[in-house]
Fold:
Amino acid sequence: MSLINKLKFIKKKLEGDDVYTFYFTRPKGLKHRAGQHGICILPGLYLPHPFTLSSSPDEKYVTITTHVNTGSRYKQKLMTMSRGDSILLFGPLFNFTFIEGVTEYVFLAQGIGITPFRSMLMYAHTKSLHVTTTLIHVDSKPHSFQKLTEQYATNASYPTNPEEFRAAVGSQKSSQHFYLSGSPRFVTSTKKLLLQQGVKPRSIHTDSFLGY
Structure:
């Protein structure tokens, strides 16, 4: 397994509003687990930028899904890439992944924080993992991944405001493992909510979504 891989750009797809998915070739040396990050270096930009890999390890292409209207030079560069352009991917990184022996998962996502769960739910489906997955994805409007995640999660709900989100989280058993992905503020507040509900700290797994 190589920790540095060169990926060639294939295409981009508009998912909705300013959210795009960017497709890259999958090099033979790239081995990653569903839910992990990669650190990317784009052509002409020398500082690295973290992105969640929204693709499952079994899919043909490596994909990154992100907002593009953020003023970020990285997002602007992604939008202007041409087919065949190359990026460097360092990683994969972090253990925001399925845990051997754990069978009950609750995925809590805010907005574009759905991306690691898209990867994990797709992987659980294709590998027929014996797990129960509950997805609670809060966003002000339906996300383009809703149809896929609703299909592959054991249970899924899509609250549109904080009150509905807290109510949905409050209905979950505290014995499950909870995965949090979204803005740093979302992750911090949701972790506090779970601790108040009696969830053990070791059962809370956080992804502050470094590229949010």
